[in-house]
Specification:
Blueprint: E1 2-10, E2 18-27, E3 30-36, H1 37-43, E4 48-51, E5 56-57, H2 86-100, H3 103-119
Parallel strand pairs: 1-4, 1-5
Antiparallel strand pairs: 1-2, 2-3
């Protein structure tokens, strides 16, 4: 069992949406209980404890739609006049990019996107 505490806990519980000195009890891959840090440390004294040091504690985000191959295109703009609509963006950038990417490019773009997701608490 793992306790993550000493942080600002967002619970997603409408009756108690925020615990200023919060703690989450984790068993396996699931949060099974939340409360104050002192309450849960007292209840589970043997549990491993991660000190959030006043940081934010919250459930992870789920990204339900992602174009992993496009990570390397950040900041790219098509040459010439700015696109007037999405079809111009597709024609001037995306379809050209799609044709130019190799399997290795796609692999590294995907790995970069996944690292970004993990760093932001997103699965």
């Amino acid at each position: 069992m793992l306790l993550v505490g000493n942080g600002k806990l967002i619970t997603r519980d409408p009756d108690m949406p925020f615990i200023p000195d919060g703690c989450a009890a984790v068993r396996g891959s699931a949060i099974f209980m939340v409360g104050t840090t002192s309450e849960l440390r007292g209840r589970y004294p043997e549990a491993e404890f991660i000190d959030a040091k006043g940081g934010l504690i919250m459930p992870g985000f789920i990204n339900s739609h992602m174009h992993f191959y496009s990570t390397f295109s950040r900041g790219m703009t098509p040459p010439g006049e700015p696109a007037k609509d999405f079809s111009q963006v597709l024609e001037r950038l995306w379809w050209k990019l799609d044709k130019a990417l190799t399997l290795k490019d796609t692999y590294y773009s995907t790995m970069t996107a996944l690292v970004d997701c993990i760093k932001c608490g997103c699965t």
